[in-house]
Amino acid sequence: xxxxxxxxxxxxxxxxxxxxxxxxxxxxxxxxxxxxxxxxxxxxxxxxxxxxxxxxxxxxxxxxxxxxxxxxxxxxxxxxxxxxxxxxxxxxxxxxxxxxxxxxxxxxxxxxxxxxxxxxxxxxxxxxxxxxxxxxxxxxxxxxxxxxxxxxxxxxxxxxxxxxxxxxxxxxxxxxxxxxxxxxxxxxxxxxxxxxxxxxxxxxxxxxxxxxxxxxxxxxxxxxxxxxxxxxxxxxxxxxxxxxxxxxxxxxxxxxxxxxxxxxxxxxxxxxxxxxxxxxxxxxxxx
Length: 287
Prior knowledge:
The protein has ten helices and six strands.
């Protein structure tokens, strides 16, 4: 992926170096408990404190945060994040302009081990997440190594897909989609709520594809193998593969993010179309 010559976003808040008091247990459920947190929290714009507080043996007291300032990061991984975030800003500014709207970019918070957001306290095990309460994306850069080693999805474009997916949740918030879905979920059966979550996640995958289409059109960011990296990442975190890896069998009714095939299909749809209008998962007859 060609990223080094791209502009760097200033909407970066560096909180790495957060101190955690002795005795604080964050994301300490262990075993399938941690996997459940990862399954639900990863690539899902929900309140991580709810996930953590409902896990046995997990305590979520307040933590002290050592603020790193905005835009003051210089290592290569965070530099990469700043470029990808800038590309999402440019892509969505253009797309919102076409809809007669104004795009308000999110802040991306870099953290290590644990972080406090408007959605509560979350440990790194939750994975990258978007908090609609403060309209910020949260990312522990160590997740990129997990993406490569644990999920078999290496490559810089796979990492960019992760960021673009979370920004997709921000787009859903700005368009009022997230609020409508939460209202429907509050009145739905567990099975219906899961289905709404799947459609929400697949739409964010599609919106990530829209970003890739527009960023490549603007700056020719895609290199040979990048599309395969993105599709591989989408496939690696499908509910069926995650359930098979964690518990040895698949329960489709418990899906919250979509199958590997669905995630690949919707990411590819956004990538090919380049317009958010192609991402209406909620009125799609077949996902």
